[in-house]
Design brief:
Length: 346
């Protein structure tokens, strides 16, 4: 009997059982590229918008409470809009809720470890109950029928418009309260002496790259989820939520290192309000769908619990609140525990 020729399969060099398909590697590269450009372009977008507003005579306080506070949520807004528009509302909802969890547990936890956060601003103490009210309003819309529809989206955007009007009014009223420490903090951080043409270039370039990077990021994240068999919701709650929160993390850590804890706290409060009212509105407007059951039984309650914990540590009526290093460790431990819970839920 003749010797049997080796098969084509046996002629191939052995490959590792842990190697990833080329499509997954391409998608992961898109996610990494999208995050890198998203973070840089968000910073340039906020820089240009803040510089332009200052040149137009807007007070640093109002710029900080609106442009900076909400502008750092531009990545979440665009990612959720693209995800919902292409039929992935779970990713969009997960991004909104997961970003709020990351903002409180991860970002404030790290910032408090860098330096204890003393909340001295009376303006921020007025915004903390507002965050609680916004969370209750969003929860009411989600839990009443377990469906996020176009009416819910319209109501959320109307709530956002109302909050912006209140913040602007409160900021203008608080302009005369020059003793509030957040005035000086914003005045130091808002760009000065940036020519208007240059501010417009950074604003336009930042917005353009935000749009491109958000689209690339969503494409890569959806492909990774489909290839690995992971739900869009889990991807939105973890990779996307943490990635789109990186601008807030960078801003908060830099603020703390510059001795500006009120800005760090204000960034989180403004971002979380915007996520609940603006980012969460887009899945309802662009792709109405039932809210995943896990959001109602796991993720929203976790976000609500962390928000209450944050307010208990940071809110005092007549004296500054304080999040020390033990509080920062508690927040980080809660975030790690939540990620472990998600891992077991996959």
């Amino acid at each position: 009997m003749g010797v049997e020729s080796p098969t084509l399969a046996t002629q191939r060099p052995p490959t590792s059982q842990f190697s990833l398909p080329t499509s997954v590697l391409t998608s992961l590269a898109a996610v990494i590229f999208g995050f890198a450009v998203l973070i840089w372009s968000a910073d340039r977008f906020v820089y240009g918008a803040a510089a332009l507003a200052r040149n137009l005579g807007v007070s640093p306080l109002l710029i900080g409470l609106t442009v900076v506070g909400f502008g750092t949520s531009a990545p979440e807004l665009l990612v959720s809009a693209f995800a919902a528009a292409q039929g992935n509302p779970g990713l969009a909802v997960g991004n909104a809720i997961g970003s709020n969890i990351a903002n409180i547990a991860l970002i404030l936890g790290i910032a408090a470890l860098v330096s204890p956060l003393v909340v001295g601003s009376r303006i921020l103490r007025r915004e903390m109950p507002l965050l609680l009210g916004v969370m209750a309003f969003a929860g009411l819309l989600l839990f009443r029928d377990g469906y996020l529809g176009r009416l819910d989206g319209v109501l959320l955007l109307a709530g956002l418009a109302g909050v912006l009007a209140w913040v602007i009014f409160d900021g203008m009223r608080g302009r005369s309260d020059a003793t509030d420490p957040i005035h000086a903090e914003f005045d130091r951080e808002i760009p000065r002496e940036v020519p208007t043409p240059r501010a417009l270039v950074w604003l336009a370039l930042g917005l353009l790259l935000l749009l491109i990077s958000a689209r690339v990021l969503v494409w890569g994240a959806v492909n990774v989820a489909e290839t690995l068999g992971v739900s869009d919701l889990i991807i939105g709650l973890t990779i996307i939520a943490i990635g789109t929160s990186l601008p807030e993390l960078a801003a908060s850590v830099m603020a703390v290192r510059h001795g500006e804890p009120d800005i760090a706290i204000g960034n989180v409060i403004g971002s979380n309000i915007f996520n609940l009212l603006g980012v969460l509105a887009f899945p309802g407007l662009l792709h109405p769908a039932a809210v995943p059951g896990e959001v109602l039984t796991r993720d929203f309650p976790v976000m609500a619990g962390l928000t209450v914990l944050f307010l208990l540590m940071a809110f005092r009526i007549r004296r500054p609140g304080r999040i020390g290093r033990p509080g920062g460790l508690l927040l980080l431990a809660a975030f790690v525990g939540y990620l472990v819970w998600l891992g077991y839920s996959m």
